[in-house]
């Protein structure tokens, strides 16, 4: 495929975003888990919980630092690689990002230092407050960033001003409480909680398999399993809410995820597996579950979910309407204050479809010159990649249900089997440590790739959003980012593995000595590892 500045700019931003998101979920989840552990320490006064807080807090700090380093680059890319996007929608998109920096990032960056260096300078309660402020700041950062991203998926609370040629905010309240943004926030942070829970579970399971730091490992598994089970169930419930939101805000994305070419009679079935065929416009070997998609997407048994073919026809109609808006817009720009009232009325009547006319500018300079064939071709461009979306979504969902099963099993062992964990279960917990990151990256892929060909859905095409850069500039910076980010990732992995192998720096003597005296009781004939008696 021929490389151009649009595809290279997309590739560069996707690469930096997905690298950054390797660190974000663990930061979100570990901040809460560490705060929970310190809360138990303050309530009980038991040294083992202080040990746990410090150990997992150290891993949180490493991950937090790398997340900040990779996140800053993304902020600058909006101005460097996506300058027209920044000009066109900066009044709306920039507001939540600015608030994120002032309200959330400064909060967590300030208190993270107090968390690490304030153990001997703050009271127990004071340090606990600091821990929770770090956790709140981390999650507030995600809130404002996802409000910005949610607006790109569902641009509410804004309108296009034909006099300034820019989008302008009309209601900050609508932007803040955008249904897509709220659903994305709770879904994303819950996924982060699952990521951290699986990480803590896997590392603790490794300690038990090695017979090291078992007091810390058992309690960490109990906390991670409880928190992780609740979070994994939340991910499924909140993912269902995202599906309902997409059914009336991003219909084409939902149809592409489902591989739904034709509009089904209500209620639509959910395609469990299948092979979408773009050329034949059908999904081969589809295994369908009746009613499920209709219930998820519409919350009813009577409302239809439109298929891709009908949505393409609707896109053609919106492109034709958008051309009328574009023609009126050009007249407004030429006439300025002398623009006839009927021209402005025409623009207002068709302005919501202006973005669809702008899709034509991928093929021509003036959308008014488009032929019916070109309009039909452009309408086809509104279909995102069906096959990758179809399977990325299903792998993500499959992993999600797998996390529920794993967390439920360890919760049951922790609560009802006196923390007796079979060795095969501990090995599985270690092996699945990378799985939440795979699910999280696939989730972002579905969200962002499914929005194409739009930067702001229905408003600004991706092809018009980029800066005027050369292919050489983009290739050079892309290579530089990949090398730099890979080095950071290797450094982070090295540091995390180093501190995991080392374990907690301050052992709880009474716990360790008890386990040393009773080492022979840690193995049973069925290969299970029993619990340590209560302190």
From TrEMBL:
Query: What is this entry's stated membrane topology?
Result: Multi-pass membrane protein
Which InterPro entries does this UniProt record tie to the protein?
Cyt-d_ubiquinol_oxidase_su_1
GO MF terms held by the record: electron transfer activity; heme binding; metal ion binding; oxidoreductase activity, acting on diphenols and related substances as donors, oxygen as acceptor
One Pfam family, short name:
Cyt_bd_oxida_I
* One GO term of the biological process aspect: aerobic electron transport chain
Gene Ontology cellular-component terms listed: cytochrome complex; plasma membrane
The main location class comes to: membrane
Q: Family per UniProt?
A: Belongs to the cytochrome ubiquinol oxidase subunit 1 family.
* Name by which UniProt lists this protein: Cytochrome d ubiquinol oxidase subunit I
- Species for this entry: Antarctobacter heliothermus
């Amino acid at each position: 495929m021929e490389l151009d500045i649009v595809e290279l700019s997309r590739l560069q931003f996707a690469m930096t975003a997905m690298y950054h998101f390797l660190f974000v979920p663990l930061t979100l989840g570990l901040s809460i888990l560490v705060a929970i552990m310190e809360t138990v320490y303050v309530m009980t006064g038991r040294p083992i919980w202080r040990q746990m807080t410090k150990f997992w807090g150290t891993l949180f700090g490493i991950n937090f630092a790398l997340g900040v380093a990779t996140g800053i680059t993304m902020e600058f890319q909006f101005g460097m690689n996506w300058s027209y996007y920044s000009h066109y929608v900066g009044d709306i998109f920039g507001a939540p990002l600015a608030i994120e920096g002032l309200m959330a990032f400064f909060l967590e960056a300030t208190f993270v230092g107090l968390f690490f260096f304030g153990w001997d300078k703050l009271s127990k309660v004071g340090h606990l407050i600091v821990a929770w402020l770090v956790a709140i700041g981390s999650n507030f950062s995600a809130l404002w960033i996802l409000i910005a991203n949610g607006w790109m998926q569902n641009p509410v609370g804004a309108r296009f001003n034909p006099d300034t040629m820019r989008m302008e905010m009309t209601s900050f309240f609508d932007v803040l409480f955008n249904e897509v943004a709220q659903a994305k926030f709770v879904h994303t942070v819950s996924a982060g909680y699952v990521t951290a829970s699986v990480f803590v579970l896997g590392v603790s399971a490794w300690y038990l398999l090695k017979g090291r730091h078992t007091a810390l490992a058992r309690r960490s598994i109990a906390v991670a399993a409880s928190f992780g089970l609740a979070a994994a169930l939340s991910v499924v419930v909140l993912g269902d809410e995202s599906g309902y939101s997409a059914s009336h805000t991003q219909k084409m994305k939902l149809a592409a995820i489902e591989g739904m070419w034709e509009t089904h009679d209500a209620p639509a079935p959910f395609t469990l597996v299948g092979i979408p065929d773009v050329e034949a416009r059908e999904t081969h070997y589809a295994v369908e579950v009746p009613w499920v998609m209709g219930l998820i997407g519409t919350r009813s048994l009577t409302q239809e979910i439109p298929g891709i073919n009908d949505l393409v026809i609707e896109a053609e109609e919106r492109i034709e309407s958008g051309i009328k808006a574009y023609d009126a817009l050009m007249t407004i720009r030429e006439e300025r204050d002398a623009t006839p009232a009927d021209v402005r009325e025409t623009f207002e009547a068709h302005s919501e479809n202006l973005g669809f006319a702008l899709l034509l500018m991928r093929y021509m300079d003036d959308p008014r010159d488009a032929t019916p064939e070109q309009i039909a071709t452009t309408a086809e461009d509104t279909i995102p990649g069906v096959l990758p979306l179809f399977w990325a979504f299903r792998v993500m969902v499959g992993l999600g249900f797998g996390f529920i099963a794993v967390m439920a099993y360890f919760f049951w062992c922790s609560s009802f089997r006196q923390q007796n964990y079979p060795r095969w279960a501990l090995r599985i917990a270690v092996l699945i440590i990378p799985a939440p990151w795979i699910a999280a990256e696939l989730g972002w892929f579905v969200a962002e790739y499914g929005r194409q060909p739009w930067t702001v859905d229905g408003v600004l095409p991706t092809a018009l959003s980029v800066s005027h850069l050369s292919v050489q500039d983009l290739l050079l910076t892309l290579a530089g980012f990949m090398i730099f980010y890979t080095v950071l990732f290797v450094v982070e992995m090295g540091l995390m593995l180093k501190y995991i192998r080392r374990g907690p720096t301050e052992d709880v003597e009474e716990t360790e000595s008890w386990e040393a005296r009773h080492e022979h009781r840690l193995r049973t004939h069925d290969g299970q590892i029993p619990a340590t008696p209560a302190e």
